[in-house]
Amino acid sequence: MLDRCCGLVATDTNGLEGISFELMVIIGVGIGAQWLAARLRIPSILLLLGAGILAGPALGIVRPEELLQDFLFPFVSMCVAIILFEGAMSLRFQELAGVGAPLVRLLTFGVVITWGLTTLLAHFVLGMSWFSSTLLGAILVVTGPTVIGPLLRQLRPVGLAGPISRWEGIIIDPIGAVLAVLVFQTQSAFHTGSTEHDAHNPLLLLGGTLLVGIVIGTACAWILSFALRHHAIPDHLESPVTLAVVIAAFTLSNQLRHEAGLVTVTVMGIAMANTHVSLRHIIEFKENLSVLLISTLFVLLSARLDLNEFTALGWQGGLFVLLLILIVRPVSVFLPLWGTRVLLRDRVLLACLAPRGIVAAAVASVFALQLGNAAPKLVPATFMVIIGTVVVYSLATPHIARWLKLSSPNPQGILIVGANAFARAFGSAVQEAGFPVLLVDANHSRTLEARLAGLRTSSVNILSESAIQDLDLGGIGRYMGMTENDEVNTMGGFHFAEVFGKSNVYQLSPRKGSAAAKDPNAAHLNLRYLFREEDSFTSLAERIEYCDIKVTPLTDEFTWEDFQQRHPNAQILGTITQGQLSLVDWETELSPGPGTKLVLMEEKSSNVQLPES
Questions:
Q1: How far is 217 from 213, CA to CA, in rounded Å?
Q2: Cα separation, 15 vs 67, whole angstroms
Q3: Kind and range of the H or E element at 354?
Q4: Which of 174, 425, 444, 481 is the most exposed, having the fewest neighbouring CB atoms within 10 Å of its CB?
Q5: Which uninterrupted H or E stretch holds 506?
Q6: How far apart are CA 314 and CA 319, in angstroms?
Q7: Contact 87/170 with Cβ under 8 angstroms?
Q8: Does residue 283 lie within any of the structural domains?
């Protein structure tokens, strides 16, 4: 008896060690793939899929069904819900100004066109049954917000394509999942003769699902916002409580209507994002959690793949992906947007922004488990589309955006925080030289003066968690903190270093003794201080009262030495060489040559002579 008990304990211990090892591999490989992708500046999905295939079918280290058993797909569904909620929290209603009608068309007519054309291609190209083809068409309606988001941050496109694709990428995911459920339940009802779940009335099924999702999502968002607004939740519990509410709302909705949970969490995320409640801690927690969940999910799901099923698709699989990219997406964009105010170049860019991601992978995997051998091509076709669209769009879209003049590989524009007199004068000079300028200030009288001077402005709180999403950063590549508040300049620099990179973040010299001057994070971030060490906000505000800021070119006849002799008191604020704008900071050593334009400040009485360029 004792030997038997000892043997049982040893077996259980080995089992636990095996589970721990597999979990360690999944998390370690996933985060490692994310890190390597960030270093190589390539889409993380590609490395995550490769890591999952290597750990799963190639080496047999990770066996998802044995690891999680019956918990696998409930876990997958819940992770997708959290990811969608986090993505929906980036959507602001003010972005819908001017894009609401085109977005609705894409989410209705565009969805139907994508669904129909994909179904036809799946049947005639891949040879799938009509049921499997219709199901695959519904699944591939979704796009990949986990891919679109980083791609948009890389492109920073001007125009309407950015906000439209951001909203489409989030909202279309639950739509695709609900359509897939509708197809599955309708087909099952016809085969079994059942009327359960209103399966014989697809519109009733769809309406019920949307109703449950909207009602529960809105109610949970209101309750949670009310609790946060009235400080009913301690600060350190805000993120855990929010996560618990999201999971509870998702589970309750799914109990009432199958897959209504994804609608619920999307509605809840959008509603939370548009309340007047600080969500910084919650958003930071959700962003970090989403990175972990996305990594884990892709490794888990790709570890389930059967490589023989991929090879069974043959050349038809590649043709299917190619036709989706070259025909289905352009048609589903151009037809719905015909006659709208969306410009042709924006439509072309939208036609190049439809990568599939984690939602398509998760939904296909869930249905494949339920269908068994009835739809053997469903999962490999979905993953082939994910890989193909991510590769093609990631490689081609940046070049297309630059060709359309909707993006720049090295944007030269400036985001100036502060719309004071010096910032307005500097911004006007830079804008007249041909560079985009955006001034941000919470003081409405200052922004009004800036607009009257012909400058673009915004009253967004630069320190809010939504600032990056709320600002149109098309063509903008630098940050200049130029307010009278040194802490705002510094904290804004921390915020936008993630967007522009540390080398493109500047601020005015902080006052001696200020918190910003003593902040050790400033040295860690390597903030670049503008102009000269003595150029604080106060000194520049005084000097701009009797100085002008202008641009003058250097030529072979009017060299840098000539300029220094004629205007010894002029201060150089920046230089423009071959269309590249460089800002002067404490470490700049000036030696401009002919062809360079100088952005300078000098007393108005000096009357700098501007030679003809």
A1: 6
A2: 10
A3: none
A4: 444
A5: strand 505-507
A6: 9
A7: yes
A8: yes
CB 473 within 8 A of CB 449: no
**CA separation, residue 213 to residues 178, 209, 243, 255, 264 (Å):** 11, 6, 17, 11, 4
Which tokens go with 300? Answer: 């888990």
Model pLDDT for residues 285-327, shown as the tens digit of each residue: 777 787 888 888 888 888 888 778 788 888 898 899 999 999 9
**Number of domains, the chain:** 2
Q: Is residue 392 part of a domain?
A: yes
Q: What percentage of the chain has pLDDT greater than the value 70?
A: 87
All residues at 6 or more sequence positions from 357 whose CB lies less than 8 Å from its CB, including other chains: 45, 142, 143, 144, 145, 146, 147, 386, 390
List phi, psi (to 5°) of 548. Answer: -115, 155
Q: Which residue has the higher pLDDT, 15 or 538?
A: 538
> Closest Cα to residue 29, out of 53, 44, 48?
48
- Do 424 and 384 sit in the same domain of this protein? no
Q: Do the strands 571-577 and 580-583 form a parallel or antiparallel pair, or are they unpaired? A: antiparallel
Per-residue 3-state assignment (H helix, E strand, C coil) for 561-597: HHHHHHCCCCEEEEEEECCEEEECECCCCCCCCCCCE
Nearest Cα residue to 419 out of 448, 391, 384: 448
> Is there a single domain that holds both residue 563 and residue 479?
yes
pLDDT at 193: 52
Task: Of 514, 548, 515, give the one whose Cα is nearest residue 432.
Answer: 548
- The rounded distance, in Å, linking the Cα atoms of 304 and 383 is 11
- Categorize the per-residue pLDDT at 2 as very low, low, confident or very high, splitting at 50, 70 and 90: very low
Question: How far is Cα 381 from Cα 140, in angstroms, rounded to an integer?
Answer: 10
The three-point CA angle 552-554-558 to 5° equals: 110
Whether residues 146 and 214 fall in one domain: yes
How far apart (Å, rounded) are the C-alpha atoms in residues 499 and 512? Answer: 28
Range of the domain at 128: 70-403
- pLDDT number for residue 323: 95
Strand duo 597-603 + 547-553: pairing = antiparallel
pLDDT in tens, 14-40: 455 667 788 888 888 888 888 888 777
Predicted TM-score (pTM) of the model is 0.74
The residue assigned the tokens 């150089």 is 572
CA 60/CA 281 separation, integer angstroms: 39
The residues that bridge with 549 in the sheet, in sequence order, are 601
Nearest to 381 by CA among 211, 129, 42: 129
Q: What CATH number has the domain bearing residue 149?
A: 1.20.1530.20
Q: What does the block give as tokens for 103?
A: 């977005």
